[in-house]
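Need the bound structure for iron/sulfur cluster, inputs here:
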Amino acid sequence: MGAYYRDFSDFLAELFPCKMQKIAVNAGFTCPNRDGTKGRGGCTYCNNQTFNPGYCAPALSVTEQLEEGKRFFGKKYPDMRYLAYFQAYTNTHGDIDRLMDLYEEALAVDKVDGLIIGTRPDCMPDALLQRLAQLNQSHRVIVEYGAETSHNITLERINRCHTWEETVDAVMRTVEAGIPTGLHLIVGLPGEDEQMIMQTIDHISQLPIATVKLHQLQLVKGTRMALEVEQGLYTVPQFTAEEYIDLCCKIVKRMAPTIAIERFVSQSPDALLISPRWGLKNYQFTNLLHNRLKELKS
Ligand code: SF4
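Answer from helper R.:
Posting the output first, comments after.
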């Protein structure tokens, strides 16, 4: 167990006998909240500038991306094993046979022992789940859903085009299929105060999830949210790093201890980020958080 909470390496250590490294893969998927399947325009905080046909047709195949990642990490850790992390956009949105071909392509790469598939909770049909459950017999499959919050009023405000009930349904079906399941949350969404944030932590703590990934809301140039804030339609929280660290300490205390916390912060490219601008690298933030947790413990 990490010093102050169950962390992602604790979770991986229970599934794999050796050290694992994630390699992010962009398989050229789109998003149902952009292509009209669920909505158009996307979530209000999501940067539409990065969505273009070039992105949807990555120059490198899944195998090439994984081999490139292995070359990078393998220099320092020759014995490392890998997880292919299907991260960009909605990685279960498409024809099921084509999806399975891409996942199997990743698993055919030497030293790749499993998959982490990032997706939306409204994008996991039973037919695909069954195929993933079969794949999970021979390799490790982990699914990560973008829940963002448990409050439907916020989900509507940020144009997620899915509900908290859909998140609960997707989690329950995935866990019943025997697949370890994680959630992604955003802390500080418009209209949410600390009480609402903690309610989300309470709600996710009641689910049989294995992992959670949090990050602070980032206001990013070129997004609908940035425009709406500029127009004065609403405000977004302006946490200082210290305030956010204190909030994370409360989240750690409140979260079910069985859930592994993978991270607390994220960093958009400097040229795109409007706020918050803390000037901290992720590992620097984590060190500060651990120091604060240590102080609180003593
Ligand atoms: S955040 Fe995810 S679901 Fe929302 S628009 Fe962006 S890619 Fe689509």
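Comments: Residues 8-297 form a domain with the pyruvate-formate lyase- activating enzyme fold (CATH 3.80.30.30). The longest strand covers residues 140-148.
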